[in-house]
Structures are given as structure tokens and as C-alpha cells.
Batch of 4 targets.
Target 1
Amino acid sequence: MNVLQTLRKPVVTEKSTLMQEQHKYVFEVHPRANKSQVREAVERAFNVNVTAVNITRSAGEQRRFANGRKAYISGKKKAVVTLKQGDTIQIFEGA
């Protein structure tokens, strides 16, 4: 897998915004990405030093609509990346 395909998009929620004070940033990542690939992708893309990577996976679910139709919502994989003290990622800071 290409390094640039590892990171899908940043996750900007109230909780992830509060985590920035602890130098932690949340990204949605490729379903087959592992910790070392996420670390390399973040370091290359944003020119920062990563100290830790935690990955969580949410299960997909099936939704039912009023007309009886069913749809499957696929699961997502998120990575919480902890940066070295003093490093920041500008897309989260609004600059």
C-alpha cells in the first residue's frame, strides 16, 4: 500500500478537538493500514515526529428504512496519533 493512501481524512469532532491539547490527532485510515504505516504516513505528510499510534476499528452495521429496504453501513478504522512535544499539524489548527 502506498504511504499516501494510508491516511483517508482527519476526524474533526468535539472530542478530537479537545485531544489536541495533549498533542493527539485523529485520522480515518485505510482498513488494512497498521501502526507503522500510519506513523510513516503522518511523519511524511506533515513533517512531524510521532511518539505513539493507537488504532481502533468500528464495526459496520445494517440499517433498515421505512419502506423495508436495507442498507449496510461499512465500518471505519481510526488512528489516534500522539506527536512529540512542540509539534503540531496545521490542518487542525486552522492555519
Target 2
Amino acid sequence: MLVIPKKLFLTKGVGRHREELSSYELALRSAGIAQFNIVSVSSIFPPECKLVPRSRGLKSLIDGQIVHSVMSRTATNEPNRLISASIGLAIPHDCHQYGYISEHSAFGETAKKAGDYAEDLAATMLASTLGIDIDLDKSWDERKEIWRISGKIVRTTNITQSAEGHKNGLWTTVVAAAVFLPELH
């Protein structure tokens, strides 16, 4: 039996608690995925997979289900420390080709900066497999224009959660995830 995801959704969340593990649990609740047994997988967006809204994806899952996910997670108990967790996604024009999902976690980066980086990373990985010559010294906007012109990358996006560490030193955890919805063959 092959498990090949045909749908995927993106989600994010933040949690705060005096215990690090509890702050992680609260971040998963905030993301809407705490009720699942999450298995971490690597970063391939399967061929013929579709990105669906979080609300639609959650409706097709059952509490306690084993769910595969690419997840980014960052935690701090340092007051006011900026943390970010981001997932980048690059989907190829040819739906029979696989794409890439990247995870990025950071300290001191805004959500915009972390999200752009994760998206850029996924698109750069996809571009290299498609034979698109990318100059890594070019700016994010210049590279994005090259991808558009090539016609081989149809879409890039990201989901990012950032937060500042709690002012009184509670653990703060941020998560971002790409959650696969299984289809059995």
C-alpha cells in the first residue's frame, strides 16, 4: 500500500506557558493540529498534490490520526526575543513534477523576512531540479521574476508565525506546518 498525499494545507500557531513542552502543545492547538499524531517528513510537495484551505483540510482528518507534516518550530524563554517559524512552498507548472517545501526557523527575524527566506529557499531548490539558472546573489524580487519568466514554477507561497518572547520569561513557541492529507492506493 502506498501513501501518496493528494492534498496539503498550511497552518501556524503560537503558544505560551511556563513549561516548554506545554507551550509547544498550545502552539499546536493554535495551529489546529494538536489532536493528531504528527510524523515529521522531508520536503517534497508530491506530484498532482493540491494546496487546500486549512479549514477544508482539518475536516478530512480524525482525532488521533497519524498525520505526516513538514514542520518548523522555534521556542524561547528570553523576554522580548523575536522568534519565527516558517514554511515555504514552491509548486511547479507541470503538475506531474514534484515541488519543494522548506522549513526555516529563526531568532531576530520578522515574519516577513523569515517567510520570504523560506519561500525563496523552496523556489531555489525547485529551480535547481528544473534546470533554471538562478543567481543567488540577486535579490529576492529579481529571482522571483526569473522564476516567472521561466514558466516552470507556477506558484510560491509561505506561512510564517512570529512572536516575541513573553515579557515575564514564559516559554513562547511558534510553529508553522505543511500538513499532508493521505490518499491510499
Target 3
Amino acid sequence: MRASCRQFLDVTAPLIDDPMGLRLFMPGTPAWMFNDALGELRGVFGIHVAQLSAKFGVDIEDDLATIVPAPADDEDDGSDEAVPRRFWRR
């Protein structure tokens, strides 16, 4: 998770430090790069939150559950890759 945060900052710091930092809020490459990096960060955190929830039986609040990957549709293969729905707070 720390490595993912460092990667996010490495990608976005030049965009934010740019004297024309407002470009992040305009359509184009800087906004795309920022949104791409943010999506990747959310994906990594979602996987780790799911694993922590499954391992320790911690409920996940609705807002945080939006980044948790959905359980696989196929049969359970015995792995703890997805968070059982019982741990999702709805």
C-alpha cells in the first residue's frame, strides 16, 4: 500500500507542481494521467482492504466498499481473494 502511494505521488507530483496546475481540472493529458493514477491507487487499496476484511472479519462501510472488488461469479475455489458478502455493510 505504501509503494502504491509512492507511485501515485511520483506520477501526480509533476502535474500538481506545474505552475499551470489548473490543467488538472481541464480535459487533456494531465487530467487523464491524474485520474488513471488515482484509479490504480484505489484498485490496489480495494484489494488490500478486501483481504484485511476477509482475514480479520472486519465490516466494510458502504463508501469504502465501492473500491473493493466484487466477488467472482464462478464457483468458490477456496481462495480468500474476494471478500465474502457477509462482511459488506449495506
Target 4
Amino acid sequence: MKKIVFIFGMLALGSSLISSCKKDETTTDNSNNASVGIQGKWQSSKANVAPLLVTLFKVDSIYAEFNTNNTYTVKQWDNTGTQLATLSGTYSQEKSTTGTIWTIKINQTSPAALTSEGIFEYKNDTLRYEIVQTTPDIGAVKPTPEKGFGSTNNGALGAMNVQKYLKVN
């Protein structure tokens, strides 16, 4: 059961893609040390948590930090206030050619090794995030920028796997 919790935890958040992105699209802007893309601290709770996580695992809140060195940490709590296992690993991101949507690939190293892929979009201090585990294969189809949010499993889940985060200062 814990393994399933981790897998679906990753449906809500994740990290590392080796790609041919431009450096300024995937890392910190070293000229002013500004965050790029998903980099920063994010928090999701109550109605902002993806309905899939609430329904299946009673997740109440999630705190995610995406560092400028392309590592991440995710902490989750259930609706009783119990902290679930901390997720960590590396990530990479790439701005897509579709609107303001980016792609992300997560290489989780703890508590279990797995890869997740998905999309995100941030506007002001709000982040929309949709991701699924792709390795080991659990039969999930990753969302794409072209199909937009709600495109996990070719749209079969609708908004059930879409997470909303608010920027934490």
C-alpha cells in the first residue's frame, strides 16, 4: 500500500530530464539568480489538492521545493495530519511551444526509484501541475502540452489529476 501511495504521490508532483533545452529555459538565470519555470517553493492544500489524491489516499496538503540545482523535495500530509514519506530526486524542465505550458520529467530516488513525466504552467504565484509515473510502467499515459491540462490517460481522468499550488515565499 505504501508503494501505491508513493506512486500516486508522484501523480501530484516530481524531477530529471536530459534534453536539448536552451540553458536559460532549464536552469537558474545566473546573471540575476532568478528562478526559472517551476523552481521555487510551492504549497497545495484542501481544495487545491488533485481530487485523485484526495479520493484514493486522503492527501490533505503537499509542500514542494524545486531547487535551482535541479533537485526537489516533496512532503505530503494526509487528512489526519500524518506526514507521509518524503519524496526526493532530480528534475528537468523544458518550455514547450504550446502557450505557457512547460514539460517536466522527474527522476525520484527516494523513497523508491521511479520516473514521472508531465506538464506544468505558472502564472503569477499559481502553479498548475499534472504528472504521471512512466517508469516502471503502470499503464498511465502522460499529459502533453498539446492536449493541455486534463490530458492524463488521453483525457480519461479529466481534472482528477490536476494539482494547483501556490507560491511560498
